[in-house]
Write a structure and sequence with these properties.
InterPro entries: Phytyl_CoA_dOase-like. It holds the Pfam family PhyH. This is Phytanoyl-CoA dioxygenase. The chain has 290 residues and is α+β, with helices and mostly antiparallel strands. The protein has a domain of 202 residues: Jelly Rolls, CATH 2.60.120. 33% of the residues lie in helices and 15% in strands. It is built from ten helices and eight strands. The longest helix is centred in the first third of the chain and has 19 residues. It starts with a helix and ends with a helix. 34% of the residues are buried. The structure holds 2-oxoglutaric acid and fe (ii) ion (FE2). The site of 2-oxoglutaric acid has 11 residues, from strand 2, strand 3 and strand 8.
């Protein structure tokens, strides 16, 4: 029996309602994690020039972390493109719609889960950040970006073991029950969604230990922030956000969603590709299939 089944749905529901979050061990299948970890490693390896089919380093290895730093320092646009592509992997999307996670969310009140935002992979490391918020998110409520159903849910999970030295996620238990807190007046451009900390202090935050294979599920109103990664290793995690399509307040607000997704109005690389590049690709394919 996995740890996930040792706690009954009623106990989890009560804990979720009281604290605003639950950690559920043994929820994520090892092969789903391995597939996503492999995709992340492959994307950065291809970006760094490792050929398709050649071995590539594991995301926990020193070699992989060196590769990330080299790309970040010497080819930032390539680093950024690869990091963003990780958000578009099929394995990440498959994991975010994993039936075990969906079933658990439904048992915690998200009757009709609907994707709020594209799933995200975070790479938190001071050596891979142009400003602090890219390696350590200040205190916030996820509602500030989701703005959907009151009973939506955030799923956060580590893609490698996140130790205390790597800075675990920190939450203020019970803070969800106070609802939406004001945003910080005049918050800088770096993180415009910074929350007003009035009435909260550092001692209100607790670190949440989420082992590999577990997931943390929390309310969009739970106050949370990143711990500090004091290691050389990138702290790699995933974040999935959901609304409940059955929430009457969400229906009344026309199922509001503040995220923008737009088709381009012009070519990003004018003149690319020329006809010979396209022809070359298909002619090689034809020759190989003869
Ligand atoms: O991983 C972190 O430290 C912060 C992530 C976060 O704020 C989130 O997933 O909502
Ligand atoms: Fe967050």
């Amino acid at each position: 029996m996995t740890a996930a089944c040792e706690t009954t749905p009623d106990v989890l529901r009560r804990r979720y309602a009281r604290d605003g979050y639950v950690v559920v061990p043994g929820l994520i299948a090892a092969d789903a994690l391995a597939e996503l970890r492999g995709d992340i490693a492959r994307i950065f390896s291809l970006t760094a020039g490792i050929k398709t089919g050649d071995p590539y380093p594991d995301i926990e290895s020193a070699g992989f972390n060196q590769m990330l730093r080299d790309l970040f320092e010497n080819r930032f646009e390539a680093y950024h493109g690869a990091a963003r592509l990780c958000n578009h992997t099929v394995s990440l999307h498959r994991l975010s719609t994993d039936p075990a996670i969906q079933k658990l969310m439904r048992s915690l009140g998200v009757a009709v889960p609907a994707i709020c935002a594209r799933p995200v992979v975070w790479f938190h490391s001071p050596g891979l950040a142009r400003s602090e918020r890219y390696h350590r998110l200040p205190a916030h409520q996820e509602w500030s970006n989701m703005q959907g159903s009151i009973d939506g849910m955030v799923v956060w999970l580590p893609l490698l073991p996140v130790t205390a030295e790597m800075g675990r996620l920190q939450v203020v238990p019970g803070s969800h029950r106070d609802g939406l807190r004001p945003l910080l007046d005049g918050a800088g451009e770096d993180y415009p969604l910074s929350m007003d900390m009035d009435g909260l202090s550092d001692t209100d935050f607790v670190e949440v230990d989420v082992p590999l294979g577990a997931a943390l599920l929390f309310s969009p109103f739970l106050v949370h922030r990143s711990g500090t990664n004091r290691t050389e290793q990138a702290r790699i995690t995933a974040n999935f956000r959901f609304n409940n399509a059955a929430d009457p307040s969400f229906i009344a607000r026309n199922m509001a969603n503040p995220f923008l997704y737009e088709a381009p109005a012009s070519l990003m690389t004018p003149g690319f590709p020329d006809a010979s590049q396209v022809r070359g690709y298909f002619e090689t394919m034809l020759q190989e299939s003869e």
